[in-house]
Amino acid sequence: MPEQKTAIPDTPLFDRAGSIRGYRINKMAMGLGRAENRAAFEADEEAYLDRFGLNAQEKTAVLSRDWHEMVRLGGNLFFILKISAVDPTAITQIGAAQASMSHDDFLYERLGRRRNG
C-alpha cells in the first residue's frame, strides 16, 4: 500500500507533481551554474527568464525574490538557491522568508542570535 502524504501547514510539498509544475523555474535556476548565464541574468533578468519560458507568476516570484512563492510554484529549494548566489542573498534571509518571519526574529528564534536594536 502506498505511503500516505501528511500535509504540513503552509509548507509546499515537493513531489512529482511539484517537480513537473516547477520544471521551467528549476531549469532556469540550474542554468545559473554557468558563468555566461549568470552574466545574462545580471544584465537583464527578465530577458533571461523569458529564455526559459517562465509564466507571469513565476517571473514575478523570481524578480521580487519571493522565495516562498518560488517553492510553492514547484521550485526546488536547492535549485532556486542558485539565484541567491547571483544577488547575493543571505541564506538566513531565505530561511526567514520560508518561515514567514522577519530576519531578526528568524535569527533569534531559530538560531539563538540576539535581536538587533
Brief characterization of the structure:
The chain has 117 residues and is mostly helical. It has nine helices and no strands.
> What structural class do helix, strand and pairing data support?
mainly alpha
Beta content: under 5%
Looking at the overall shape, the CATH architecture of one domain is Orthogonal Bundle
Biggest sheet, in brief?
none
The CA-CA distance between the termini, in Å, is: 54 Å
What is the CATH class of one domain?
Answer: Mainly Alpha
Mean pLDDT: 84
**SSE pattern, N- to C-terminal:** HHHHHHHHH
Reported by name, the CATH topology of one domain is: Protocatechuate 4,5-dioxygenase, Chain A
Q: What is the count of DSSP helices, taking H or I runs of 4+ residues?
A: 9
Envelope shape: globular
Uncertain ranges: none
Q: Which percent bin holds the helix content? A: 55-70%
Radius of gyration in whole Å, from Cα? 16 Å
Number of strands: 0
Look at the structure and name the CATH superfamily of one domain: Dioxygenase LigAB, LigA subunit
Structure description:
The structure is a single chain. With 117 residues, this protein is mostly helical. The chain has a domain at 16-86: Orthogonal Bundle (Protocatechuate 4,5-dioxygenase, Chain A). It has helices at residues 16-21, 23-31, 35-43, 45-51, 56-63, 67-72, 77-86, 91-98, 103-111. Helix 8 (91-98) packs across helix 9. The longest helix has 10 residues, at 77-86. The protein is globular. The N and C termini lie far apart (54 Å). 23% of the residues are buried. The model has no long low-confidence stretch (mean pLDDT 84).
